[in-house]
Amino acid sequence: MIHYPAIVVIAPLVGALTAGILSFVEERYAYPAALIATGISCAAAVRDLIYVAGHGPIAYHMGGWAPPMGIEYRIDTLNAMVLVLITAIAFLNLAASRPNIKQEMPDRRPSFYAMYLLFVVGLTGVASTGDLFNLYVLIEITSLSSYTMIALGDRDRGPISALNYVFVGVIGASFYLLGVGYIYIKTGTLNMAEFATMIPTLQDSTTILTAFILCLVGVFIKMALFPLHVWLPNAYSYAPVGFARIVAPLMTKVMVYVMVRLMITVFGLDYIFIKLHIADTLVWLGTIAILAGGVMALAQTNLKKMLAYIIVCEIGYMVGGAWLGNNLGLTGAVLHILNDGLMTFALFLAVGNMVYKLDRVQIKDLKGLFAKMPWTMTGFVLAAFSIVGVPPTCGFFSKWYLILGAFKAGAWHFAAALIMSSLICAVLFFKVFEVCFFESPDTHVGHGSDTHGRHTTVAIQEAPAISLAVLGIAGISLIVVGMYSKTIVVRLIWPLLRS
Amino acid sequence: MKLLSLIVVCLTGGLLLYGTADLPDWGDPNTPASLHLSKYYIENAIRDTEVPNLVTAVLADYRSIDTMLETAVVFCAGLACFMLLRDFTPKKDHYYRHVPSGVILHVKNPDRQIIAGNEFEDMDKEWLPPDTIIKTVCRMLIPFIQIYALYVVAHGDFSPGGGFQGGVILGSSFILLAISYNLKYLLKRVSEKFLGILSAAGVLVYMGIGLAAMVLGGNFLDYEKYAPIFGEHHIRALGMLGVEIGVGMSVTAVMVIIYINIVSEGKHDEGL
Fold first, then answer.
1. Which of A21, A62, A125 sits opposite B197 (nearest CB)?
2. What are the residue boundaries of the structural domains of chain B, listed by start?
3. Using a CB-CB distance cutoff of 8 angstroms, which residues of chain B are in contact with residue A187?
4. DSSP string of B88-107?
5. Using the beta-carbon criterion (under 8 Å), do B76 and A125 form an inter-chain contact?
6. Which residue has better confidence, A367 or A449?
7. What is residue A26's predicted lDDT score, i.e. its pLDDT?
8. pLDDT tens by residue, A185-233
9. CB-CB contact of A118 with A141 (8 Å)
10. Which of A103, A142, A195, A458 could connect to A122 by a Cys-Cys bridge, CB 3.0–4.6 Å?
11. C-alpha distances in angstroms, A365 versus A359, A439, B155, B234?
12. What span, in angstroms and rounded, lies between the C-alpha atoms of A298 and A343?
């Protein structure tokens, strides 16, 4: 009996509850408990991945009940990969963000760890469940914990951006739930695999079509696809650093995973590409999201906001790529879930380090940062290269598959948008590098940031060693994943698409 | 913008109407929803689980992981209220009541505090003397409400009820105590620390039952695996009772946590 699929989700939940209790009893043990819980979860996820790559999918029956009656957690190569990404980032971020959390919320740190772990429970659960309603419950946990965390961020604007997020997020979740309701009334089942066996006989049903559209719109709201993205930039840039570093790389990517899961496993590629004619529209939506995200990112003066708009842009890559309707596009989209998670994590790690020292990250405040924080900036440059798509960083390879897919599908507009966005990202990041490298900080600095006075400029003022070490790991993983992307595609993604 | 919203609403409504075109008829017994899973549950739940209440059997056994995660959602809500609203800043002004004479002292200097003892009583600005009639009536009612709540928790697997409902009733009895006396009185009886631990412990009880089943060689939450310890008889009902108690603990604590933090804006002062 293999229990790893359950342990991945349960370990953080045990950790969350233990941290919750410890926050009232013995505060200083809350952090080790959280670290151990994410560590166990990560180890179990790696074990899952190794098993699945060798032996094929695992189906874990919760409560010992076989699927249509009970709830099944089903791990195949796709979600094993996503689970490793989630748990690894959760573990590393917890190690890296301890100084930031201490700095930002001295009085409610232990409960922060409990909430953080609940968020991880939600994400890992969403990635491993094989039941449509269970997915909704887990989305609820994820959302509730992220609303709270975002409200705890920036003192003035955190609560209001969290409130906006609550309104939009609840609407998104309700759309998804309504879709699940339609599915249930038409089929009587909530199990993804069983629903997939029924879909060939229900192809002409308008109810199923409505259900599909409702689920898709719900997921689009949650992943912040362009016209539905309004909640994202404020929410992510005003969140506390320790949380922004996990929510920014993972939340939207996990929702992209849900979309891919709905496409591949639940509704099936035959239904969505042959029966329905919406693929072109969605590729256009992806194209628009890429361009709009890029243009809006250009207009930002705050580094965090700029990165948030880059996330909106990257969502366009994955949605457009997945809906191109060929294996190459879908491969690119799935690979980009992994790569974009890592790239965004590295970027936010670097930005978090800057926030730790500078407090404000308006782009004009970053003058002379290469001299002051050389290691942080090295990591930032590496992640930026990956976003732009410079080989051998991993961002290049997923973009390569996406562009090949676009050519094969004849979606020239999408290919053009991909190349355009690389250029826009290059402009964006070189604008930042220019300020950080060439402009000396002795010109007048506004609004009392940390860089007042000449004597602070030359001395190296780096973030804590643990944050830098994690940034180093993230940076190296960008290159390693890039170099092994062929293996990842052949071993993990293609077997999935072929079946 | 209003026009745009109207268009979106109309489109969504149109989509929902379009979706209903293919729906089964109202009350039709031959729909997939009533022929597939619910048919299985109705026919086999009692044989499988030995629990007469089918709803509980589905919630706490067939789909028990859902219910566990819902309890985690409840815990998350309580934690969210605590984190967002709890105000740890110390009070600037202090009020004391001289018990024998009823005179109230207002001390503005935070360094000078009167040690509350028999003579002086620590109090807050919003304090109002509780009404004797309300106090007496509630004091008599609360034990009955609590007994009823425990009954609802314990009978979840036999009759309508269960951890969520019982927990809400139990929690509301504490809230009634806070309303009829005052918040400080409630917090003297059940401390914030106790509530915080209880809210997490409830979910831990649920998970503990699941994890122990795992240790005994089954899947997570497979109550059947307790048979060697507790005997075959009604083993699943027993497992369900256990998890219902866990749910009840969490829900009770979270109800009270949400109430005390919202009503006093996180300050835990006297008053309502």
1. A21
2. 64-88+130-263, 93-129
3. 32-33, 36
4. -SPPS-EEEEETTTTEEEEE
5. no
6. A367
7. 85
8. 888 889 999 999 988 888 888 889 999 999 999 999 999 998 888 899 9
9. yes
10. A142
11. 10, 10, 63, 68
12. 19
pTM of the model: 0.92
Confidence check: pLDDT of A450 > 70: no
Q: What count of other Cβ atoms lies within 10 Å of the Cβ of residue B5?
A: 9
- The neighbouring-strand residues paired with A75 are A58
Buried b (16+ CB within 10 A) or exposed e, A428-450: bbeebbebbbeeebeeeeeeebe
Q: Tell me how far apart the alpha carbons of residues A114 and B115 are, in angstroms, rounded to a whole number.
A: 36
CA atoms within 13 A on the CB side of A365: 20
Q: Over 70: is that where the pLDDT of A445 sits?
A: no
CA dist., res. B138 & res. B135, Å (int): 5
Looking at CA atoms only, how far is residue B245 from chain A in angstroms?
17
Q: Coil, strand, or helix at residue A335?
A: helix
CA distance A148 to A170: 14
Count CA atoms closer than 13 A to A436's CA, side-chain side. 25
Token pair in block for residue A77 = 């190569």
> Taking a C-beta distance cutoff of 8 angstroms, is the pair B105, B124 a contact?
no
Task: Provide the CA A81 distance to its chain's centre, in angstroms.
Answer: 13
Residue for token digits 């590729």?
A283
Q: What value, to the nearest 5°, has the Cα angle with vertex A128 and ends A319 and A267? A: 50
Q: What is the DSSP string of B25-87?
A: PTT-TTSHHHHTHHHHHHHHHHHHH--S-HHHHIIIIITHHHHHHHHHHHHHHHHHHHHHH--
B95 beta partners: B106, B123
Q: In what order do the strands lie in the sheet with B103-107?
A: B103-107, B94-98, B120-123
Q: How far is B69 from chain A (nearest CA, A)?
A: 7
Q: How many CA atoms lie within 13 A of B245 on its CB side?
A: 9
What is this model's ipTM?
0.90
State which amino acid sits at residue A69: M
Q: What are phi and psi of A188, to 5 degrees?
A: 80, 10
B227 touches chain A (CB under 8 A): no
Per-residue CA distances from A47 to A51, A110, A404, B219 (Å): 6, 29, 33, 18
With residue A139 as reference, give the H or E element that holds it.
Answer: helix A132-151
Cβ A227 vs Cβ A298: under 8 Å: no
Interface of A with B in 158-217 (CB under 8 A): 182, 184-190, 205-211, 213-214
CB B119 within 8 A of CB B98: yes
List, for residues B17-30, the tens digit of each pLDDT value: 888 888 888 878 88
Angle (CA) B62-B251-A170 rounded to 5° is 80
Q: Which two tokens stand for residue A479?
A: 């290159």
Q: H helices of B127-234, where?
A: 132-154, 163-180, 183-189, 192-215, 227-230
Domain boundary assignment for chain A: 277-444+458-499
Question: Burial level of B21, CB count in 10 A (0-12/13-18/19+)?
Answer: exposed
* pLDDT digits 0-9 by tens, A7-59: 999 999 999 999 999 988 888 888 999 999 999 999 999 999 999 988 888 99
Report CB contact under 8 Å: A63, B70.
no
Q: How far apart are CA A299 and CA A459, in angstroms?
A: 32
Taking the CA atoms of chain B, what radius of gyration do you get in angstroms? 25
Q: Which tokens belong to A160? A: 């209001």
- 3-class DSSP assignment, residue A473: helix
Distance CA A363, CA A297 (A): 12
* Binary contact (A71, B66; C-beta < 8 A): yes
Side-chain half-sphere exposure of A331, counting CA atoms within 13 A: 23
